[in-house]
Amino acid sequence: MKIALAQINTTVGNLIGNFNKIKQNVNTAIHLGANIIIFPELSILGYPPLDLLDKQTFIDESIEYLLEVSKLSDKIGIVVGGVTRDTDQVGTNIFNSAVFCTNGKIVNVHNKSLLPNYDVFDEVRYFETSKDYSISKINTCKMGVSICEDAWNDKDFWVHRKYDFDPIEKINSLGPDLLINISASPFSIGKEKIRTQMFSQIARKHSTPLIYINQVGANTDLIFDGGSKVFDRNGNLILISNRFEEDLKIYDTEKNYNLIQYEPPSDIEDIFEALILGIRDYCRKTGFEKVLLGLSGGIDSALVATLAKFALGEENVLCVMMPSQFSSEGSIAHSKKLINNLGVQGTTIPIETLFNQFKESLKNEFKNLKEDVTEENLQSRIRGTLLMSLSNKFGYLLLATGNKSELATGYATLYGDMCGGLAPISDLYKTTVYELAKYINRNSEVIPNEIINKIPSAELKPNQSDQDTLPPYDVLDKILYQYIEEAKELDEIISMGFERLIVEKTLKMVDRSEYKRKQAAPGLKVTSKAFGTGRRFPIVQGWR
Amino acid sequence: MKIALAQINTTVGNLIGNFNKIKQNVNTAIHLGANIIIFPELSILGYPPLDLLDKQTFIDESIEYLLEVSKLSDKIGIVVGGVTRDTDQVGTNIFNSAVFCTNGKIVNVHNKSLLPNYDVFDEVRYFETSKDYSISKINTCKMGVSICEDAWNDKDFWVHRKYDFDPIEKINSLGPDLLINISASPFSIGKEKIRTQMFSQIARKHSTPLIYINQVGANTDLIFDGGSKVFDRNGNLILISNRFEEDLKIYDTEKNYNLIQYEPPSDIEDIFEALILGIRDYCRKTGFEKVLLGLSGGIDSALVATLAKFALGEENVLCVMMPSQFSSEGSIAHSKKLINNLGVQGTTIPIETLFNQFKESLKNEFKNLKEDVTEENLQSRIRGTLLMSLSNKFGYLLLATGNKSELATGYATLYGDMCGGLAPISDLYKTTVYELAKYINRNSEVIPNEIINKIPSAELKPNQSDQDTLPPYDVLDKILYQYIEEAKELDEIISMGFERLIVEKTLKMVDRSEYKRKQAAPGLKVTSKAFGTGRRFPIVQGWR
Lengths: 544, 544
Fold this sequence. Notes:
homodimer, 6-stranded mixed sheet, 2 domains, 18 strands
């Protein structure tokens, strides 16, 4: 039997677009002689649909498209992700379903049992839990179908489990010939390795071949990396789809496959691919062709410009230099070199006159008061205002260039450098920013080495350096990682060998900056805990 | 038996502050001869603690304070809301608990069964569900204790239920003499009436007296209105705590109470009280004494200035007038009259020079291009930057003055008039803004009638009126209400008698402004569906 793995890039809410993509893939799979084609979780709706699921007309229409998909199944079996209704009068009344169609009809529905409700996931908000399991049969093959999280609770794989039962065990007790898991599993650093190990173990444990099909493409902050896989009954990986792009692979159950020795790419390579896809899909799916950003001469904006060029092409990137009296000579020279290396557009708008005019306008209010962080923020906000004016006038998307270390500590100006429709590197620590720049330069200099090697500075007052305010980034980032991603607390972090004063200061900066992050542009999630929808701290709070 | 209802105003995460408040109330209740004192849900932690609950040291410390509370129970019984641990290795391992203490010890724990996970609530993210029920006994009185949502699933009260069982039924089957529900139930328009009816019906249905104790005070966007209540076994209301302020009432089970004919205050009166409390608590709990805002001459900023004065006192409010060449003569005169009426501080910073300087700086970029919305936004962003400069220099909190109709339709400038740490009226439709202004003026003119009666305009270009861009507010607000709060869709709204073109245009404006709202300042929730944490739409989406 030939099974097609349709790893497609859907757009949340674009039912007709997603349906057309499904139809196209069904036709291709028929053409390739496949007996059945399998699509990712909620592929009719796109993942995650969030509160669109509260709209009854959206649910209704998605179910109409589900029926349309079923009509495509007269020459091929289809397993597709969609929403189905529950009939009682209790709860949300919808399920997250894997729907099996054949002979032009829906013949079986597998509903999701384990609803993730942590980090960026809120599925209990939308769906009901199912505890009914069944087998779908195509030809003589008995398929046990599960949905994403259903496979993530194996008691032999996880020391700490989130749920008290394992749907895969229940499904396996029905004697399937093949396990299928349809997913919408977002990318984060290191996850590809865990997935590969986990699904391998499930196949081996149940002595059943397993197909894992994942969504690809980005929707707002979440990047789905694809990499769908087939494992044999011994848990050997025998087929893998491309990552970070659409793919349609055929798995032939009659064929003998060589085992794949799969070593996932390095973290930095993964991050690079993820961000390119994230930027490209955000622009494409919101209708922006071109982007602009402010180029300061520093590493962050240089990296964002470079990523934007790779994602959208040099003709679609505008870099704006906005020097002040505090800008170093190098900052313009290095920026111009970068613009030249990338082949993108560049323009210069000095801010000194505007800065002086603001100070003049505020003269009476600020009489007898010393200059302080107010004037630093002011420069940043003048730049933000100029960039937004260009964005408004030309219809380009503004990219914010802040990194995770800045956003964590509040070392960023609200309504200034935080302006933007998308913040592509806001989930990258400063040390990762450097790593990624070096990765991009691995074959030849793309980002000028002067930019990589200079001492980081916001250049908002004379002789300023980031380390006037922040601990050295190699120390800071390790503390931030422990606090944000590992949820470690003060004493635990100190016990790892960091200085108490530095840890106290860092944690305080993180806690006090929550109000800024609540107004930050959406970022692209690449770590296990990004600022944004998956991290929910109160602004008003008295803990520490 | 004398039962004290301790309706306290806790701060999320401020364990020591909350403990001290609990201790103080225990001492007062002992002094008043109470046999038992009852506190609201999670009163040791404050509600909602959100991701603070992921911090193990926070949980540990809250449990230490719980033990400290239990030690206060040698002369009085205590029912207090806190977190307790589950001992298995599955799930989040914590419960949302009502803990009964007497004789200096914890003697019983009632865990929450129904975890709300809709709108602003995410409790499944944090807590495990309990299905164990028990009775706590003080003297000879058997108390059946439940927590907030546990009481909100009575099949005789709700047509559509969220959960498939009713904890109150289970508790009642244990034969309690008294039902107690400890809550942290946020305010929204009309909810007080529903609560009163619902708890009355529960008491009557089970023929058992019922005590409902609610949190009071605001934490970030949520305002808790208090109004704790006692119902007799016939469902008659016999005691009610103050609303929108702390209160300690004693209910004497031996005493005969007169029935209270309770008609909740009008919606507009409730909104007024809620917003005052919301502004006051946001400032107090984040450490701001003073606020500032931009006064445009329009109704929105006039209302915010007035609310701020009531919340914080006239000496703590600074109003900034920032006229341009497009400002009407009246806008300054009316603003000055308001400042005079309120007795608050006022200052003026004209923006014309800055506006001209920005246009000069952008001259090359904008060559041969017509003026458009860019220049309108520019004025708004200059004002935002000036206000933020004052905020930074003086340490005053900036209040954003936008209303819900603007935020819904995107009729607001990101990084301009949307700047601010708190947006007090962002959950008020424009028509409600007028109602509230008239309510405030009910006895004498506080907000000048010229401001109430003028035609609404952003004054960002000559002869501008809001209705150049938006449908008339009385129509717009009805459509917005149906779309946002009632989750009605296009055809349903049209069928209510609105013009198709207007409805289509309105819904499109709402959908397309999601990116702006994601970067908006936190608001104060007063409706059943506020923008902010309780409404989660994707930015990238293709539905309609």
